Structures are given as C-alpha cells and as structure tokens.
Amino acid sequence: MSAGGHTGAGGRKGARSRKGASGRKRTGARKGAAGPAVPERIYITGFMGSGKSTVGPLLARGLGYQFIDLDAVIEEKEGRSIPELFDARGESEFRAIEQRELALLEVRERIVVATGGGALTNPSTLDVVRRSGTLLYLNVDQETLFKRLRGVRGRPMISDASGRPLSDDALRERIKSLFAEREPLYKSADIVVDGTSLTPEATVTSILTSLRA
User: Which of 11, 95, 123, 126 is the most exposed, having the fewest neighbouring CB atoms within 10 Å of its CB?
Assistant: First the structure.
C-alpha cells in the first residue's frame, strides 16, 4: 500500500481491513449501539504526528466509547513528562512501562487507545494488543510527517542530546530511520487507514465503515 492510503475497488481512499487476510478473528467484539461485532478495545498506532490524538477522540465519540491516551496515562501515574521519563530511565525502561500500562487496559471495555509511536517495537506490547483488541494504523507519508514535526519540542525521539528539535536534515533522517524500523509493525495492523489526504472526520467515517463491515 502506498503512503497516501489504500484505494479500494471503487477507487475511494480509506480504511483497509486485514481481518480476512490474516484469518484472526476479532477479540472481545460485541454487538450493540456501536454496530455489529465492533471490538471492545481498539488500539491506534502510527508514527508521531500521524494524528492519533486527533482521530482517537473522534472515533471514540462515534462509537460511544472512552478515549484513552496511553502517554497521558503514563505521565499521570509516573508524575513525569514523557521526555523526563526518557531522560531518567531510558527508552527500554519506558517501553516496559508502556507495556505494563497497556496490559492493565485489557480488562476495560468499549475503549479506543492511542499508543505511542514506538510502542509496538516492544514484542510484549504487541502481544497485548494482538490478544485483546483490534489494531488500527494511521498511515501518513514521511513528507507530511516532516512538515508536522518540524520544530516540535517535547518529543525525545526527534530531539538532540540537549532536548532541542533536530535540524531539518537530521529530522528527515530520523524519520526515515524510525519509519524503516516501525513500518512493518504498523502495516501488520488489522485496519490500515489513510491519514495523509483525508480529514480527521473523513478518516473516522472510513474507520467506522471498516469496523462495522
């Protein structure tokens, strides 16, 4: 699939469900107001700047679910910002915290969870997502990500050793490197949706159609 999104048989860009191809059935799906067999737990993945915190609340509202931002949960429980946690504990320990907090959500129902952009690089975190819900990938091309992330502060993975935003060239290289590592994990999602050309509202409409199919 191209970075701009998947184009279906009718020529319309939008969400693509991988359920049929993978053979995995939805975990914890329920029938009701949200629609037939909509999963109880929906996890949103994607690169930083892909729009998880924008699309997530809209999707949750459309389903009548609760939206949970995993980074916000971690910051509240740990009493530190994400950059502070990276500085104090390093990436590997931060990924372990992500996995722990995500595992605690397995017992929750009717939730949409925005995960960190690198959360799936921890195999234990990916296992939690796979066994307990449906994984949704917001696919945004690298040039759009660069434009959205240029000059952004408070993102450890795209900051220099002093915590300052990377230069343009360094940012492009960092995005390229991280994307190469993470894209195979992202594209293994149950649903892949275009996050580049669609508005957040149109993105949610596409997701809802795929979830209820």
Answer: 11
**What does the alpha-carbon distance between residue 194 and residue 76 come to, in Å, rounded to a whole number?**
31
Q: Which helix (H) or strand (E) holds 176?
A: helix 168-186
CB within 8 A of 138, min separation 6: which ones?
A: 44, 45, 46, 50, 51, 52, 55, 193, 195, 203
Cβ partners under 8 Å of residue 152, min gap 6? 49, 158, 165
Hey, which bits of 50-128 come out as E strands? 66-69, 111-114
Q: Residue 139: beta bridge partners?
A: 194
Q: List phi, psi (to 5°) of 155.
A: -115, 100
Go through the domains of the chain in sequence order and give each one's CATH number.
Answer: 6-140+186-212 (3.40.50.300)
Task: Output the CA–CA distances (angstroms, integers) from residue 122 to 40, 77, 102, 118, 125, in the order listed.
Answer: 23, 20, 12, 8, 5
- What are the tens digits of pLDDT across the range 135-192? 999 999 999 999 999 988 888 889 988 889 999 999 999 999 999 999 999 999 999 9
In angstroms, what CA-CA distances link 183 with 59, 128, 189? 23, 19, 10
Would you say residue 42 has pLDDT above 80? yes
